Amino acid sequence: MTTPKERQITNAPHGHILTNVNVWSPDSKRIVYDVRPDAAGSQFDGDRIETVDVDTGEVKIVYTSRNGAKCGVATYHPTLNRVIFILGPENPTHDFQYGFARRQGVMVDESSPEVVINLDARDLTLPFTPGALRGGSHVHVFSPDSRAISFTYEDQILSGISEEKDGREINQRNVGVSLLEEPVRVPKTHPRNHDGEAFTVLISRTVANPKPGSDEIKKAYEEGWIIRDGKRSLAFLGDTVDENGNTVPEIFIADLPDDLTQPGDRPIQGTAITRPAPPRGVSQRRLTHNAFAETKGLPRFWLRASPDGSQIAFLKRDSLDVAQIWTISPDRGRLRQITAIETGVRSCFTWSPYGERIAYQTLNAIAIVTVDTGRTTLIPVDVSNGFQLRPEAVVFSPDGTKIAYVKHQDGKFNQIFVCDVPE
After folding, report:
1. What tens digit of pLDDT does each residue of 79-132 get?
2. Exposure letters 173-184 (e unless 16+ CB within 10 A, then b)
3. Omega cis (within 30) before 127
4. pTM of the entire structure?
5. Contact 365, 381 (CB under 8 A)
6. Nearest Cα to 136, choosing from 168, 89, 78?
7. Cα 57 to Cα 43: distance, rounded to the nearest angstrom
């Protein structure tokens, strides 16, 4: 069998940043990216969302930000030619410029480029509106059934509170969901308020000071969708505190009801001094105990469930202290080690569309592991001429025939590459 070769897809002298999942168009012909200039994409100052045709190299601009706003972190709808991404505030001021609590999710249909649709509404004045946020959303990913969008969130209203006392809560990272086809209209009582086309809530529950050894968490992040028997859940990492006072991440799951609009024990829109609360029927449960004895040095990764929802993949060190891919059932099954590669897993990862393989990055190669057998195929990448692999994205195309990833050259610009998947 001939080893597949990589192809460089972009060449323009600016940044090309891929999100860690859903960067391919539904027909597997185009890749969406943003133009942040630094290699890691941590400098949020890109002003365009673009797509590139993997066969012709043709570049199209999906959206250009206006009035000083910045945009980035783009992903595709599973079946439609629509792109969602982060948009920062237009006409930023010293007290309201881009930040974790001051950004939103928007969508553009490729048939109407430059026409932006607000996903999450924003309401920054009392009484807050159910279904609207009071802060910023980040990394927007459609559920496989296309009805909902996940994100992480931080709260603008609580960002000035430094200590929890007298019933006041601090801002913490949480996981949220926008339910499409449920538009929200808000009063224009603040210049930064805006309507949204989705009913948006938080689905994780955090506390400032988790009881040592308990299932309480102080941060929820790096979420991934699970669809089983028509029901939606989100897996995410939650920071617990062990008996010795150490912060230890574990895997949690939030099982979601069909209706996310009904309040539970606290207001879903929050109050002036408390965080928004999950809706009625959301069940948060802990899946792992002592799964991550040591996380220092692991690549940043997002939990990703197999297409049939039967396995959640994550990174964990093996007995030789090397990062490997493991899986666990959402029903508290045992941990199963999938990879055993000596050079370790060095990136985010994605499942193939039918769930038989996982793609990731190792030393100077794209790796594809067959989940049932652990058999690994390596596709070498060219690291001459100053090129280096970036770890943020190794993404299967929807038809399972290609993988997209990024390389950085000589401290200049990220470029997008594609390799074919061997049969």
Report:
1. 999 999 999 999 999 999 999 999 999 999 999 999 999 999 999 999 999 999
2. bbbbbbbbebeb
3. yes
4. 0.96
5. yes
6. 89
7. 26
